[in-house]
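Re-run with default settings, no changes from the original entry. Doing this only to confirm the output is reproducible before filing.
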Amino acid sequence: MNIEAGMNRHHSEIMSSHNNLVSSLLSNPSAPQGNMPRDAKDEASELLHKTDTDLDDAAIVAMVDLFAKDGEKARTYMQFLRDSLQKKWVRKELKEMNFVFPDKS
């Protein structure tokens, strides 16, 4: 799969998820949006933003997408109580996704 096709597929998946969420909210407009139940995916994404501040935007997007697609990965991330372990695990996951880290030289 070439990069453009992969990006188009990824964009389609994001738009589909967004449309599903909007449809769900519109079908139940009386539901208090501020009190939507949080799950491991939400908590993992929030924690990633707080603790792994040295990741660039592309890496954060990749990890948030991973959490959204695989709740078990989000729960695994949440089980690491030390920041250093969370960061090491995130880098392992990014490498498994063939993510290329920018050179810091």
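The chain has a mean pLDDT of 78. Helices lie at 3-27, 40-51, 57-69, 71-79, 83-96.
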